[in-house]
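Write out this protein's structure.
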Amino acid sequence: MLKHVITIAAFLLILAPSYSYSKVRGEATHLSIHSKILDEERELFIHLPNSYYLANSHLSKEREQSPLHYPVLYLLDGQRNFGHAVGTLDLLNQSNMAQEMIVVAIANTQRSRDFTPTYDESYNEWGMSGGADNFLDFLEKELVPFINENYRANNYKIISGHSLGGLLSVYALQSRPYLFQAHFAFSPSLWWHEQVIFDGAETFFSNSTELNNYLYINMGSEGGHMLTSYQRYKELLDTHKQKGFSYNTDLDTSEGHNTTALAGHSLAYQYLYKSLQPSNEVLNGGIPAIKQFYKLQSEMYGYDIKPSYRAINSVGYKALSEKDYSTAIALFQSNVDSYPYNADAYDSLADGLEASGNLQKALEMRSLAIQKSVVENVENGAYKTRHANLLKKIQDKNL
């Protein structure tokens, strides 16, 4: 029996190639679309998450399954921010610390025109201004429909901008809160045109209507009007608590103006992900509480939201710590069924099986975790170590 188990394990590992690709996972494309509203071509850089095609290739033919649909991050200053925004997101995805997203980076033509809400004559030497509403029309009526038609996007949309782009992100929240469900604003130029962004801001945040939105805003080692306008806006946020609205602010003087988007994207991704996850209180309520949480989220955002991998895994490991092996294994198996391309799902199932004493089945899952990790292109040293330790345990027991 032992020889048979070792032979199977060795064969499965041989099937898994040892190479990996040291690049941002997923797929990037570059294209242009014509905007009638802006009367110009707009260049786009689009990145699809690593699971975009992996998930499709694992759809069960026996069971009815829908392909995964993803939130979309609309990224301003596309040429400048695409590389680091995509790379940071991919790194966090590998640790289940951020939501997988489609990233749509928009290259600039006239950024001062597109990102500013009002015309400021004193800014004319730097470029045109006051075209923010026209640009938001382009996003709402042309770009978002184009992405929805050509990619598997769900209803959750994020806009991310730096400096004047951060100003546009905040302006979009106040002027069209329905358009994006989350807003990232890195070192936003809230000083623009004598801080015109504050006109109506207090009324907006005092509104009793449920907002169902998220804002991340940061500032680096910047002084003058950049800092004072940020502090004013932070005070506004801290003073007005609107139902359904959450936000995070960061003042990080170790970062300069040019690096606040680089540092801020990591935090914004993580904060946003946490804001959409069930609380510990919900997790402690088990599967019924989790299902109710996601049912309410689905109603809030207008599309079907399934319980996240992270939530199910958390409950699975809680059951495992309580030695409720059958529940833990069932939960881990449900994640394998829902995310059959995810190496970590097989590794977790192996943990449950090994703890329950089903070592041979656990060894099979350890081998599958290694195989899947190569296709998924994630680090697998820990998977290999656990596989070797389990194999030794089986040998010692002479199973």
